[in-house]
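To the wet lab folks,

You asked to see what we're planning to order before we commit. Fair enough. Below is the target structure as tokens, and below that is the sequence we designed to fit it. If anything looks off to you, flag it before the synthesis order goes out.
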């Protein structure tokens, strides 16, 4: 059957079948590309050696999900362990200007220095590099239909935020981090005031 314009018109059942096949093909491509999470989250945590704070973390920072729930506030748990995001311009550190070190709220690992912090205008604290290459771990994140790079704590695996290639020199990177994923340790000169 043809339309007045010469195009073939599909019967209703055939149209549904074509749409279903297209949807299946799209889902398969998305899964193959990692755009849809097909598996459950891994509750195990990994760690790395951290030489910046003087203590070596040779044992993995492993906790069960219920242990994390007991240690963290509800919001910290939602962001650090379930990969949530706090609202922009709502966190404690987005316009914080004190001198010191930002540490993981889950395990205390030093992550970012105030020397590397800059105002990005995004509403989240932003840094152009971590304090140490091993303090964070980067993973591909294909959730929400976007290709992003997730930033995780190198010691406990907690979700910190994402890194983008639109930051200032010298790295050109913007580590966009949730305030709730961080605690702050003031520099010694600031502690004596």
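Sequence we intend to order:
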């Amino acid at each position: 059957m043809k339309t007045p314009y010469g195009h073939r018109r599909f019967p209703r059942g055939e149209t549904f079948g074509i749409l279903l096949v297209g949807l299946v093909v799209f889902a398969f491509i998305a899964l193959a590309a990692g755009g849809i999470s097909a598996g459950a989250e891994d509750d195990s945590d990994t760690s790395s050696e951290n030489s910046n704070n003087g203590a070596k973390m040779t044992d993995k920072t492993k906790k069960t999900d219920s242990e994390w729930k007991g240690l963290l506030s509800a919001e910290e748990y939602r962001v650090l362990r379930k990969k949530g995001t706090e609202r922009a311009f709502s966190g404690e550190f987005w316009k914080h200007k004190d001198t010191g070190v930002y540490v993981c709220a889950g395990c205390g690992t030093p992550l970012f220095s105030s020397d590397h912090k800059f105002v990005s205008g995004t509403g989240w604290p932003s840094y152009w590099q971590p304090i140490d290459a091993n303090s964070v771990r980067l993973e591909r994140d294909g959730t929400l239909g976007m290709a992003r790079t997730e930033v995780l704590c190198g010691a406990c695996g907690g979700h910190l935020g994402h890194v983008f290639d639109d930051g200032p020199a010298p790295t050109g990177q913007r580590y966009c981090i949730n305030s709730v994923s961080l605690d702050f340790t003031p520099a010694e000169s600031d502690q004596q005031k």
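Structural context that might help your review: DSSP finds four helices and nine strands in the chain. Helices lie at 12-33, 65-71, 74-81, 188-191.

Thanks,
Computational group
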